[in-house]
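seq as requested:
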Amino acid sequence: MRIIAGQRRGHKFDGPRDHSTRPTSDLVREALFNIIGEVVEDWVVIDLFAGTGAIGLEALSRGAARAIFVEKNRENVALIRRNIATLHYEDRASVVMADAYRWGKSYAPADDQPVAIYVDPPYADYEDHPGKVNKLITGLAAAMPDGSILAAESRRKLDAEVLPDLELWDIRRYGGTQVAIRTIGEVPEDDAPSDEGVDDQQDAADDAS
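struct tokens:
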């Protein structure tokens, strides 16, 4: 695995040893940070269900003030710490060994400065426990300061079953992956994101394949 852009552009870091951990693909990471990259400069970025830490590490390379990685698997926690050390971000990174759902219940921002949170639970959770995912996202959205960015990744269609206030989300598709992005404190628009926009993203992803 590699950092796509920023201070550590091109630097490699370790991926998972098996298929039990699914890192966010280069395509999705690049697309995500093309949208939010400049915004999160000097922000705190929280990588929930962090896995390899790819999202938080990319954020640090692109200028985030700090990254917090929340991961419950002991081997993944060790992997994230190795990757932080490999990229020399020990002074700007924290690793929390915890269940992200439980962590989310008690989340409280340190101040009123905007933060960015990336939610990437196991894809099976969207199918088997959509209400649990919805509850996590709803709680985070309610707690985050205005102006913050909340994003979620899934392979299933992201809809009102898992996304509260669906009309507030910018939903994009990259190959078999969907990413939903929301700015906290936005006023609802008259129309929800259209399928046309999603199809355009699919075409772009197909062209890149």
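The helical segments are 26-36, 54-61, 74-86, 100-105, 123-128, 130-143, 195-208.
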